[in-house]
C-alpha cells in the first residue's frame, strides 16, 4: 500500500439513494438494538462473573478496558469522519479509511507487543491481551460508519448485534469449557470477523462495486479526522484508564477489588448508554435552535434538564440504597462487597446528564474545538487524580478520580457555554430532584430497619411526591 499525503478527494457518483428514514425511526431502531445488546451482554457477564469469581473476572475487565482505549487509538477518528462524509455523498472512502486504519493498527499492535514483553504481567494474561488485541487488524474492515452515513440504521444495528452476540457466545462457551484464559481473546476476533463479512457484503450490494477497490493510506484524511479521534480517546481515557491502572498496580487490597470495581463499572456504563441515546435524540433540536431566539434554546434545555435530572437522581438513589442486595441477586453472594463501588459510581449518571446538556450545546452550536479542550482537560484530571490516589487507596481512589473528573467536566463545559453562547441558568432546575432526594433519604432512614426493598420502594414514592410538589 503506497502512502499519499493529503490526497485529493476523488469525486465519486453516489448510487441512487432510497428516501432517508425519519429521525424517529432511526432512533427507535438504534435504541432497540442498544438495549438488546446491553441486556444480553449484562446477563452474560453476570454469569461469567459468577463462574470465574472476582479475581479472575477482574482480568477480563482489565483486558476489555485496555482494548477500548487501543481500539479508539487505532481508529484515529476515521470512523466518525467517514460517517460524516458518506452522509454528504462521498461514498468511496472505505478503501482509504481501511488502509489508513490498518497502518494505525500496525503501530498500536506493535507498541502493545513491546509493552507486553516488558510489562511483568502473568503469561496467561499476556496471552489473553495479545490474542484479543489481534482484532485490531480486522476492525478497519468493520463498516458501521458507512451505514450510519447512509442512515441505514437497521444495518448499523444488525452489525452491532452480530458482533456482540458472537463475542458473548464464544466467551461464554470458553468459560463453560474451561479453556485456557488466553484463548478467550478469540471471542472478539470471531465477532469482528462475522460483522465485517456481513457489512462488506451488504455495502457491496449497495454500491454495486467492490467496497475496498481503492485501498491506499491517506494521511490527509487522518489529519482531518484527528480532532474527532482525540476527543474520543479523551473520553476513553477518562472512563477506562483507572481500570487498567488498578491491574497494573496490583494493589495490596487484592485482585478481587478489580473484579468488584469492574462489575460496578460495567453496570454504570450500561446505564450511561441511555445518557448517550437521550442526547442523540436531543442534539437535532439543539442544532435547529441556531436560527431561533436564544430564549427558545434556554426553554428547551430547561425542560430537558428538569426531566433528565429527576429521573437520573432517582436511579442513583435507588442503586445507592440497595447496591449490595442488587449485586448478590445478579452476580452472586461473592460480589456483595462490590455494593459500595456501585453506590458511588452510579452518581456519574446524573452528573453526565447535567454536563451532557452543556457538551451537546457546544456541538449543536459548532463549538467542537472548545468541546475537545474540555474533554482533554477532563481526561487529564481523571488521569492525574487516579495516578495520585489509586496507588494508596486502590479502587476507592479510582472511583474518586472518576467522580472528580465528572464534576470538573460539568463546571468546565458550563463555563464554556455561558461564555461562548449564553449565560443559561439551568442549575435552578435541580430544586425538584434535591427536594426528592431529601424525602427519599428521610423515608429510607425511618424504614431502614425493615425490608430494604420495601424501604426503597416507599422512599421512591416519597421522592416522586416531593419532586412534583417542588417543581
Put the structure in a nutshell.
The chain has 471 residues and is mainly α. The chain has 17 helices and 2 strands. It has a two-stranded parallel sheet.
Helix content: over 70%
Domain count: 3
Strand ordering within the main sheet:
1-2
Mean pLDDT: 84
Strand content: under 5%
What Rg, in angstroms, do the CA atoms define?
23 Å
Query: Could you state the order of secondary-structure elements as H and E?
Result: EHHHHHHHEHHHHHHHHHH
Number-wise, the strands total 2
How would you describe the shape?
A: globular
> What is the count of helical runs?
17
SSE layout:
Elements: E1 3-4, H1 23-75, H2 78-87, H3 94-118, H4 123-133, H5 144-149, H6 153-177, H7 186-207, E2 217-218, H8 219-249, H9 256-288, H10 294-321, H11 323-331, H12 339-345, H13 348-364, H14 368-393, H15 395-420, H16 431-446, H17 452-470
Parallel strand pairs: 1-2
Helix pairs in contact: 1-3, 1-4, 1-6, 1-8, 1-9, 2-8, 3-4, 6-7, 8-14, 8-15, 9-12, 9-13, 10-12, 10-13, 10-16, 10-17, 11-12, 13-15, 14-15, 16-17
Amino acid at each position: 500500500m503506497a502512502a499519499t499525503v493529503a490526497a485529493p478527494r476523488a469525486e465519486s457518483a453516489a448510487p441512487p439513494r432510497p428516501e432517508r428514514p425519519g429521525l424517529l425511526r432511526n432512533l427507535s431502531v438504534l435504541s432497540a438494538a442498544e438495549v438488546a445488546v446491553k441486556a444480553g451482554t449484562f446477563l452474560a457477564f453476570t454469569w461469567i462473573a459468577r463462574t470465574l469469581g472476582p479475581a479472575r473476572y477482574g482480568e477480563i475487565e482489565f483486558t476489555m478496558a485496555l482494548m477500548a482505549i487501543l481500539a479508539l487509538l487505532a481508529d484515529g477518528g476515521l470512523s466518525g469522519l467517514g460517517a460524516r462524509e458518506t452522509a454528504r455523498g462521498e461514498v468511496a472512502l472505505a478503501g482509504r479509511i481501511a488502509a489508513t486504519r490498518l497502518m494505525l493498527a500496525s503501530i498500536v499492535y506493535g507498541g502493545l507487543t513491546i509493552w507486553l514483553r516488558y510489562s511483568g504481567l502473568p503469561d496467561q494474561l499476556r496471552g489473553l491481551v495479545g490474542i484479543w488485541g489481534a482484532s485490531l487488524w480486522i476492525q478497519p474492515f468493520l463498516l458501521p460508519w458507512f451505514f450510519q452515513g447512509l442512515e441505514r440504521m437497521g444495518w448499523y444495528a444488525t452489525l452491532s448485534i452480530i458482533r456482540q452476540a458472537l463475542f458473548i457466545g464464544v466467551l461464554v462457551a470458553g468459560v463453560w469449557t474451561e479453556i485456557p484464559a488466553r484463548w478467550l481473546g478469540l471471542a472478539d476476533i470471531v465477532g469482528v470477523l462475522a460483522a465485517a463479512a456481513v457489512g462488506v457484503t451488504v455495502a457491496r450490494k449497495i454500491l454495486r462495486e467492490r467496497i475496498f477497490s481503492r485501498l491506499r493510506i491517506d494521511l490527509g484524511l487522518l489529519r482531518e479526522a484527528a480532532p474527532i479521534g482525540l476527543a474520543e480517546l479523551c473520553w476513553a481515557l477518562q472512563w477506562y484508564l483507572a481500570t487498567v491502572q488498578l491491574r497494573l498496580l496490583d494493589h495490596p487490597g487484592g485482585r478481587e477489588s478489580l473484579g468488584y470495581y469492574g462489575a460496578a463499572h460495567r453496570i454504570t456504563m450500561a446505564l450511561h448508554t441511555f445518557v448517550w441515546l437521550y442526547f442523540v435524540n436531543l442534539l437535532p433540536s439543539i442544532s435547529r435552535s441556531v436560527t431561533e431566539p436564544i430564549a427558545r434554546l434556554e426553554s428547551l434545555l430547561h425542560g430537558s434538564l428538569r426531566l433528565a435530572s429527576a429521573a437520573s437522581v432517582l436511579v442513583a438513589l435507588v442503586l445507592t440504597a440497595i447496591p449490595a442486595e442488587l449485586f448478590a441477586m445478579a452476580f452472586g453472594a461473592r460480589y456483595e462487597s462490590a455494593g459500595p463501588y456501585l453506590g458511588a459510581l452510579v452518581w456519574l449518571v446524573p452528573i453526565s446528564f447535567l454536563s451532557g446538556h452543556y457538551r451537546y450545546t457546544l456541538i449543536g452550536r459548532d463549538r467542537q474545538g472548545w468541546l475537545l479542550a474540555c474533554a482533554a482537560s477532563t481526561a487529564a484530571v481523571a488521569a492525574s487524580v487516579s495516578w495520585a490516589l489509586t496507588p494508596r487507596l486502590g479502587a476507592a481512589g479510582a472511583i474518586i478520580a472518576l467522580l472528580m473528573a465528572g464534576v470538573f467536566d460539568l463546571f468546565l463545559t458550563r463555563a464554556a457555554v455561558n461564555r461562548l453562547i449564553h449565560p443559561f441558568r439551568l442549575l435552578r432546575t435541580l430544586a425538584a430532584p434535591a427536594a426528592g432526594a431529601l424525602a427519599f433519604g428521610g423515608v429510607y432512614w425511618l424504614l431502614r430497619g425493615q425490608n430494604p426493598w420495601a424501604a426503597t420502594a416507599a422512599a421512591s414514592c416519597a421522592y416522586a411526591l416531593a419532586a412534583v410538589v417542588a417543581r
